[in-house]
Structures
1.
Amino acid sequence: MDAPSQAAAGVHAGHAHAAPTGFIRKYVFSLDHKIIGLQYYFLALLSVFVGMGLSLLMRIHLIWPEANIPWLGHIQPETYLTLLTMHGTLMVFFVLTLAPQGGFGNYFLPIQIGAADMAFPVLNMLSFWTTFVAFCVMVAAFFVEGGAPLHGWTGYAPLSALQSAGPGEGLGADLWIISIALFCAASLMGALNFITTTLDLRAKGMTLMRMPLTCWTWFVTAMLGLLAFGVLLAAGILLLLDRNVGTSFFVPGGLVLSGNLVKHNGGSPLLWQHLFWFFGHPEVYIAILPGMGVASQLLSTFSRKPIFGYRAMVYAILAIGVLGFLVWGHHMFISGMSPYSGFAFSIMTMAIGVPSAIKTFNWLGTMWGGKIRFTTPMLFAIGFVSLFVSGGLSGPFLAQPQLDIQLHDTYFVVAHFHLIMGVAAIFGIFAATYYWFPKMFGRMMNESLGKAHFFFSFIGTYAIFMPMHYLGMAGHPRRYSSLSEVGFLHDLMPLQHFISIVAFITIAAQFIFLFNLFWSMFKGKKAEMNPWQATTLEWTVPSPPPHDNFGGMVPVVNHGPYEYSVPGAPTDHVMQTDPAGAVSAH
Amino acid sequence: MGLVLLVVIWLITLLSTYYFAIDKWAMLPLASAHGPAMDSWFHTTYIVVGIVFLAAQIGLGWVVWRSRDQGDQTKVTYSHGNTKLEVLWTVLTAIIFVGLNLAGARIWAESRFQGAAPGAVKVEVTGLQFAWYFRYPGPDGQFARTKPELADASVGNAVGIDDTDPAAKDDFVVGTLILPVDREAELTLRSQDVIHSLFIPAMRFKQDAVPGLMIKMHFTPTKVGDYEIACAELCGLGHYKMHGMLKVVSQADYEKWVAQKVAEKQASQ
């Protein structure tokens, strides 16, 4: 170590902390961003299997309403609504928000920018454990009297605001709101940490424009979280007050529920929708942006080519972040909101297609003329691009209010958001898992199992969600526990059958992943320091990295993040830390 | 592996497009005056988006196969991008997406920016867990005031009409929406408990009924017949069975029916 970097290490140590020795401080109440990242990841893994289990029950009920499920018996219509509410809530909050940002972001942001830890390790720990409590409170809703709420993950008032509006709207709904409020508080802590870390702890030479695109997406996602979760937190508190203290933020006067006059006056149900979607739309980008970062990183790495248009990619991420806050009203075209607002929100929504298209073009441009290695993480990154395109392109239908009149609240919407924010984001998580697993656990995942998992998931996803577009166009409303009561839905039953059968197969295939994950942790082939010949900082440290990431050294960055196949360079990849002058500076 | 991916992506793309194109699970045959413009715009969007979808997915499959690792003879093009291309496709997508939006906006404006013309048939629609009620004002054209404390389906006054209001004399409430053909209908949507949404697919009509709001909407049915109504906003455990019917009849039949209903109402008082 030369003198200047030793001096820098001294400064740096201010952010670091000594390695703990006891089990509890090392693995439970850990301050190490890597352990916290893994804690987030495994919490998301638990949530995704619970959420998937709920969707399995829904798919069974839709095609075999008389089925006798162990412990549950016949699923009642209200139980079906409970399943979809909890499925949506768990997936959106505890999977799509946690895994990409809390999990991979926590683990790899500090390493990729050359820091020893996050800026605020205690806050980081607090953020995870608050999230964990939120998860427990959410799951507890299943077990209280009346069960979990049935108001959908969007919790529209007054259905969510009145205890007598339906089964599950009692204590279950209170727990649901408290859980989300805790989740918001935890996310705010996390967001502060990510932003500060990105701005303050970058290693020497790691300029903003040399950050891997993954860091850009975690950074912008954190800013979205900071602005969006605060609003949801406020909305949640108001809803809790309406339910329990007798305030009327969301409940107007003159309501009659099951023959009883409701004692509220002066609230507005649309206020909830505005607040909820002011959070809810940015949330879509919170879920998908890190996936975009991962896709960019992987497409470049496995094509052995620099990312096409790095700067344009950064601007597109920022544009998506800004526009993401200006489009929430497109969820409310037929809510009774002014039709003039609908027109304005519609234009902003179509505009957000532009940066999204830039990203797609640039991903194709990155692969074009490359030398693609079809590893499992690469397959999932390619799958991400395909799903992102397919899910994105149903957007222009829904974004035009004159078409949304027919499609709103039908299966077309279900298809749209599952492809783009659900499965595309999940493919980003899978890609990241297969890619970073060797770094996190020091072993490789099995490639054959990985490829089988990819093809089952990729084909299965399309076979499940493409037909949902057809259902929606035929007018099938979403959140229907049965098709029996509406005549024009009877003809759609064969499609529902097809979707359920494919869903069973695709869900079963996820156990290939689960097996591969845990088996490889102990039995996988030992991983080298840089098994993918990638260029970013995490591949310059041992697998898994030491407690302070760089073993007391402070990396100095001399190159951009994606210098592959540089003419004249000795290998086909130039590490970010390689000495300057090895290639023309970038 | 590149070839396998190409085949899988292309097959998925072509199969999806095929099923979109044959329209096997079609929208219900339309029967309203504003419907044809919506359906034709749907098809325009469909073609534009379809072309982009095919181009992007076919292109993806092809790029992936074309750029596969073919051993040592593969020469990687070292490039950080191409500003001209970036500008080209940014401008192009902006024109396509925003242009598509602006070109279609008049359809939304025509149906929503203006109210119903004078002389439209007035009906008040009330949603409550889990039924639709339709109130007609009778010959006086006035809806009597309602009071929530009077609402009680068990005494036949589900929407809470205040009988002390003189306008209540000829108001009548039914469970099926009956409208005359080729005459504009003005619906006033309200809800008594939670949010519901009146969805009449054949009319290409959907509008939330929001507690606390009186939302006025209008459309003109163009074909005599029976059409299903569904609730499109999650409203509780019976959401899936909050089903209703719209019956479109001739003008003469409509007038006869109204007269009969008013007579029934007055006989009962």
2.
Amino acid sequence: MAIAAVESASLTTSPKDPRRRGSLGGVLLWVVLTLLIIAPVLSFLILGVSPRVFQQGSQWFTLKYVRESFSSYSGQGIFNSLWVASIVSVLAVTLATTLAWLIHRTNVGGRRVWAVAMWLLLMMPTWMMTLGWSDLLQPFGGAQALGVNTHWFYGEFFGPLGIVIVLTSAALPFAYFIVSAGLQGLGPEFEDAARIHGAGPLRSFQTVLPIIAPALLSALAISFAETMSDFGVAFTLGYHAHFPMATFMLFSAISNFPANFSVAAVIALVLIISTVPPILLQSRVMRKRSYAVLSGRTRAPRRREFRRGPRVAATAGVVFVLFIALGVPILGAVIGSLVKNLGIESATGVHFTLTYYSQVFHPSVTGKSLGAPLLLSNQLGLVVATGTGVLAVVLARRLIANPGSWSQRVTDVFLLGSVAVPGVVLGVGYIFFYNIGFVTHHVVDIYKTLPLLMLALVANAVPGQTRFMAGPVSQIQPSLGEAARVHGAGRMRAWRTTNLPLMSRVLLWGWLLTFTKTISELAISQILYPPSQEPASVSIQSYLANYDPGTGTAMTVMTLFEMLAVIGIALAIYRLVTPEGWRRIGWSGVQS
Amino acid sequence: MERGSVVNKSARRATSVSIRGLTKRFGVKSALDDVSIDIAPGTFLVLLGPSGSGKTTLLRCLAGIERPSGGTIAIDGEQVAGPKTFVPPERRGLAMVFQDYALWPHLSVRKNVAYPLATSSLAKGDRKSRCDDLLERVGISHLSERFPNELSGGEQQRVALARALAAEVGLILFDEPLSNLDADRREQLRIEIATLTREVGATAVYITHDQSEAFALADQIGVLNQGRLIQLDAPETIYRHPTNAFVARFTGVAGEFPVRVLGEKEPNRVEVALPFASGYAIGASTTEKLGPEANVRLFVRAVGVSLVAPSHGSGVCGVVRDVAFNGHGYDHVVDVGDGFSLTKIYAASRFERAQNVKVCFDPSSCFVMDSSREA
């Protein structure tokens, strides 16, 4: 050992180096985010008022397309999306709060099952939900095959009611997880204090409610944003029910001939603007009054012990809601895939068959099997989930480091804004930005290629994934890493032996969430898939719409079960290969 | 050397620490301001100060968790932090007991304790026997397969202590390790920290805001305030000859009063007139040259005040405001007139509330300071 050794060590760890490394890393990160999200979205949005910037018109500034967007059929779409999103967000938060309270704060039956069901619901795309309902309710469909008459509801479902049901089901898990976090942090001491000081059950509830109000507001904002930006329902149920919605009108504006990018940009702008205020509002409220009241002194919440009768009733209520949200779509799709001549009147009645499943990988109509698209989707899922995970961890660490700093605030606002960007806007932005001559010649030439689709899918997943990870990451005490360093671990070993085990579960679930969402993603895939390289969701849609609904439904079911199988395998591997300690601690998103 | 350490930390050899002109700024706020301390090998140094005094920052700079803004730190004569040097924590050859324990919740007690040994050259069997030995010494060998969340606060802190002792480093840092424990456990663990640290022969730097803890543990005490080192001395010197009013107050006084100097009785000893007892004068020590016009305050340690019955001939008249049983006697609060009072005055027998008493002062526990020079 010598002073020289100290000095040589200081070459790589002098006091200035980490800051320089940090700022270089920060610049690199923002370059990546610019290419991923900022540039594609902004270059597309600017067309709404300045089409000449990218040779889409003759005006440098015009409000013509703003007027056009609001006065035409697309104006109806915007209006529909706004009122549907308002109703859906209120319904979703009400249901989610009730479910979260029952599951986390009472002895309702099957709590672990319901928590897992919420995860499945979160992973299920809205177009699959629509398909399930539709297959079940349609004449000569699944319900009729089971001898249940649903004709009276079929017409109702193909309209605003069905849209609200499916979108509420889709928003439910988002609201549920946010409210659950709020409830779990709410120790019994607040309620105890109210009761001790003379408040009855109702007044105690009223006293405690404001403590989780930020969580409720947060759930409301996220539900609204998710509903506004949904494409699956707009593309399937909305279109077939002649109920225009903003995201579908945006898609139509660029897919019709001639494409009208300026109108699409105005609709995109409206979508983003409509979701930014509620998200910013909840962000302000959260900053002032954090509902995260977890501390070393917080005791585990006390469960309310229902007696037998109320417990059965509460359990039945939870079962009913989750059956409607998750059970009906899955059941509908599964039964639909087994009904011979699905939706076609037959003189001999409705019969079951396995024909569609034999068609999935050996189709006689088109020759286009599900094999290649599903394999492609899995490859996409693997790359996108891994890339998103890495980027989300980096961003989440940045989000919680140096609270109140300039860089933290910018990252926070950027991520909040990005959550509000619908996939369809991102998809169109990518078409536009990565086809600009300057970009293809001087930055990167990936237009109409698979990497472009991958990048867009990563960009779509990163903001939500980062916010998903920020909470669990922030719960890891810095002293755990510091203790490792002080007791001899280098930077990497300290991270690997302390942070990684504590984050492992959230990393796994985050990865699975992105993986399954990527496999079933529709909006970006529909817009950006390269010629002759259809992902599974696009392939299934073309079957459903053009060729053979029965085979399309069977493909949907196969895709759904493939996703479930991956989840099961991943969880089993995690259980087998990780030490017991990893599974005992950390994020408890699937525990009730 | 173990862990690929840059600093020599051969087993059981205490290290010296030299801190020179250490400063640390967080933005415009200065947390440490030109602090210099030399710690001889094997010394148990306690850094004492209120919240925000910079003691935690100093400890974290020493550990390598924080980077100093200026100054140097040398461990065993080798610079680990300086203008062009920064040795990361894992290469400084030290161990630390954290305030929040910082036990890794996914590792069992045994694995937590064995963590610092992972990169050592010890054979697997030797590591295990060292772990067993340490767990035995801190009295938690029966909990070795438990996880941290299955332990009480005191047990968790014992694990943290065993972990810090495991690597047999020459320097152990303690970041207020007892502050989250109840009084009973705190006393037990304090004794164990004092004996075990001295047993292994390591140099220790321990921070606390509790003066009784500091006096009980320290060979040397450094008193910090607003990022500056105010006094660094043996505990007895700190108690008997505080450098200034802040040190006097922070190390515990029964009362302080503005007084008038009547004259110097002998070198470093003056006679002062109390404001609430006309014609009554007492002796007090001082390190300053104080004239009759000086703006002077008298500080009285609780140990230098006693209560007697009113019939007693000498003493200042007072009235008992409050009395509290402390297990082996009674602590009293006594009003002595003109709004002044004395607290924590011990007496073996109880004086009741509102009872008249006489208060006697021991000049050796009274000292005066020029209040215009207060830090």
3.
Amino acid sequence: MSASRLEAFLAKIYVDENSRERFLADPRGEAAKAGLSEPEIEALEKIDRAGLILTAQSLQKKRQRLTGK
Amino acid sequence: MKFKNDDNNQIRDRVGLGWRRELALGILSHLDRIDVVEVIADDLFDAPRGERRALRTLSAQTAVVLHGVSLGLASSVPVETKLLEKTARLCEEVTPDYWSEHLAFVRGGGVEIGHLTAPPRTDATIEGASANLELARKVVGSAPLVENIATLIDPPGSDYDEIDWVNRIIYSAPCDLLLDLHNLHANATNFGYDAMEFLIGLPAERITAVHLAGGKWVEALGERRLLDDHLHDVPDAIYKLLSELAAMAPHSLTVVLERDGAYPPIEVLLRQLDRAREALAEGRSRRFELIEKEAA
């Protein structure tokens, strides 16, 4: 059950800039609010921040290319 | 190295190109140099009948394979049956040599990510992928080849290395591997492991298709990562991996070059196909020499 919550949480911070900013400012608080387990919260506290930013940028460019916006 | 089930005379590797509207004329004019064409399945799910008819015409002239991008099979969440049904209808209409999808998740909690993303590498996503692949096989009528994806982020919450995770999925599901060599190269470069060792760690007998592509460097917070963007030429390192794979694989390989934009003249892409053929020939030659030596 928590596995799908973690995927949903990741989808949100990859795609939504506000959610990502809130998460980067307070990883533990945002992950706990999403109902994630303690090991998942700990993993998110150690997130690869450069990777997160680059993933978000890349996804945004791909969406722009697909929608032409 | 010991090879089983070899019949060298039966190895017929194929090299081809991903179908894109911008490349259509170039592809159709050079079918003598393109053994196989890979079509993005999702582009055709809701395409007008004329476009689907054109694909049937193409499949009468050359080998066609279908490649999906939106199923999100590597997820703890069940795949959407309506997408599988669309894939099934398309496969029935086009009769591709095979169909393929990615080991990725593309949506979660009602959010559409809009592209392929690496899920946490855990037992939950291994079990989810396995169940999704079984369902895909049932609905579509054949199991897809599954493709390793490129990622710019080390997926948080992972319990397995990429190679263990991929191997566990393909051993738990009735699927062979479509090995994207640029994805492998990019992940190895970004996360500090050896691409050749990764390749050797895969079951060669389960790799039946290959993707080639190029990419570029991107940077954030002072860290550089290699992005698999399909907008650049195939780098030398990828041909080296292809040659090694050809030396390992006991059966024919289907190799497809993916290019999604910044299209060069078709001749430039055809030259990359020729280089892929050279790499395959070099690897096969090493393989045959080794087999002969072992038999002597």
4.
Amino acid sequence: MSLNSPLSKVIGLGSEKKGVDHWWSQRVTAVAIAILGIWLLASSAMLGDFSYKNVMFWFKQPLNTFLLILTILSVARHSHLGVESIFEDYIHNKMTKTILLVANVLLHACLAALGVFSTFALFIGV
Amino acid sequence: MHRATGIFLSLGFMVFTIWLFCLLDNSYPKTMAASFFSGIIVKLLIIAWSFSFFYHFANGIRHLVWDAGYGFEKKQIYSGGIFVIVFSFLTTILFLYSIF
């Protein structure tokens, strides 16, 4: 049951009811990145040097491809939510805020697609 | 600081995905991707991104602990803060030492 009056509903006052989803999503991806991020850094530290040969060999390992795609998706979601909070908190002009929030969604969708596509393409060797 | 490193890491993620895409170009050794790790500016950026990652990682765990309802004593708040700073410096040095 909503305690909002009909007028405040029309004007759009009150909670948007999406806060919990945002909050949980941010925490779950945080834990995922804490694990996957450490794996990625440890894995790159063990690579020796970042020569073409070493890097390409790394991308040919199925487990690396799989975990990197997971990492990219988690980071894209986490970064999307984090930047969204910052725009919501610090940008006060309604028009600018809306434009930035939409741009944020599009940018992170592009980055996720770019990252997943590139990782997979490197694995199969396009 | 958590938000500042977060924004900076978002930019790092953007550069990382573009770098991945650049790897698909077969002329990798000649392009930006190869000289990526040797240039001084990129080296400085990698140092900054490493520190930001470890800081955001440690402070993020601190936030998760707070979310779970622990660590609100004044003493724990201070020791947590010191832990985050010491941890992020040590891990950054360790990581940079192993990649450079």
